[in-house]
Write a structure and sequence with these properties.
The protein has 341 residues and is an alpha/beta fold. It folds into three domains: 74 residues, no CATH class; 98 residues, Translation factors (Elongation Factor Tu (Ef-tu), domain 3, Beta Barrel), CATH 2.40.30; 142 residues, Nucleotide-binding domain of ferredoxin-NADP reductase (FNR) module (Rossmann fold, 3-Layer(aba) Sandwich), CATH 3.40.50.80. It contains ten helices and twelve strands. A six-stranded antiparallel beta sheet has the order 4-3-6-1-2-5, covered by helices on one side. It has a six-stranded parallel beta sheet with strand order 10-9-8-7-11-12, sandwiched between helices. Helix 1 crosses helix 3. The longest helix is centred in the first third of the chain and has 20 residues.
């Protein structure tokens, strides 16, 4: 078959394309009336189909199709995980970029060993970080909860507040892009699954927002998860409200599923949120009532020790939640309804 005949045959086969294109225009803002002169359309279509006939005969589309299939297969396959837990050794990750969020908090982006890797973290889990100070006998090890999406490939983000006497936070704040940090995990926290509870209440203070954000993001990115979320977030000043832009974007996108209440110890003039500390009256007003069982509601708490003691009592260790005390006990919640990060 000659190239000309092949092109004409292909043109006849492509004739329905013209009708599909004209129908599709009816969904746009342009007029739905067909063009009176289709010469230009047929001319352009003829050139396109002629080219298609040439490439069809030369076999190039077949190679291109195979390449596309390989890419699609790679993307749909289960991604490799950087952190696998168990007996896995510490990974030395390179710091890629640093973003200053306020006077004492930065976001650190670490590069994973391979570009198409995911972190391997799940909701809710954390990581351990390690470094050995010069002249010290033992290394410093501290847990952090990443704030990057669990499906993000090639990188992982940590949000770290610098404390005056915090060896790890000080070390991190002194790191420069290109330097490395030893990291290990994941460390399981709370076994989350979609729709595990009808309503979850999150009470956070300062950087205690990081495990809450991990949970909020996981719920709201899943259209099948209908869990309602109430967040009460306490801070000293307005500048201290971490991830505020991200939280407000999620609240605006999911107004019927997610609500946030900000509380400031030192509120500025004109502040419309709550002032002072997180109180019993506030929690009684905004939290789901404790009369529902733990299968329906769950309250999560994370923040500095003073806040934890005031709200729920501190946990004794990573594996021991400790006694339920404070405001939540006074309001009638049971230990089964409360989880301390």
């Amino acid at each position: 078959m000659s190239l000309f005949v092949a092109s004409r045959s292909a043109l006849r086969a492509a004739a329905p394309l013209k009708r599909v294109q004209l129908q599709a225009r009816r969904y746009a803002t342009e007029s739905s009336e067909p063009k009176k002169n289709n010469t230009a359309l047929y001319g352009a279509l003829g050139l396109t189909v002629a080219g298609a006939g040439y490439y069809f005969l030369s076999g190039t589309p077949s190679a291109a199709k195979k390449a596309e299939e390989k890419v699609a297969e790679k993307m749909s396959a289960e991604p490799k995980k950087a952190f696998t837990g168990g007996e896995q050794s510490w990974l030395s990750l390179t710091l890629q970029e640093v973003e200053t969020l306020n006077h004492n908090t930065k976001r650190f982006r670490f590069k994973l060993p391979e570009d198409d890797m995911v972190s391997g973290l799940h909701v809710a889990s954390a990581l351990l970080t390690k470094f050995k100070p010069e002249g010290a006998d033992k290394p410093v090890i501290r847990p952090y909860t990443p704030i990057s999406d669990e499906d993000a490939r090639g990188y992982m983000d940590l949000l770290v507040k610098k404390y005056p006497n915090g060896p790890m936070s000080t070390h991190l704040h002194e790191l420069k892009p290109g330097q490395t940090l030893d990291i290990k995990g994941p460390i399981p926290k709370y076994p989350w699954s979609p729709n595990k509870h009808e309503h979850i209440a999150l009470i956070a203070g300062g950087t205690g927002i990081t495990p809450m954000y991990q949970l909020i993001h996981a719920v709201l990115k899943n259209p099948e998860d209908k869990t309602k979320i109430t967040l009460v977030f306490g801070n000293v000043t307005e500048e201290d409200i971490l991830l505020r832009k991200e939280l407000e974007a999620l609240e605006n996108t999911h107004p019927r599923q997610f609500r946030t209440f900000y509380v400031l110890d030192r509120a500025p003039k004109g502040w419309n949120g709550h002032q002072g500390y997180i109180t019993k009256e506030l929690l009684k007003t905004v939290l789901p009532e404790p009369k529902e069982g733990p299968e329906k509601i769950k309250v999560f708490v994370c923040g500095p020790p003073g806040m934890m003691e005031h709200i729920s009592g501190n946990k004794k260790s990573p594996k021991d939640q400790g006694e339920l005390k404070g405001i939540l006990k006074e309001l009638g919640y049971t230990p089964e309804q409360v989880f301390k990060f």
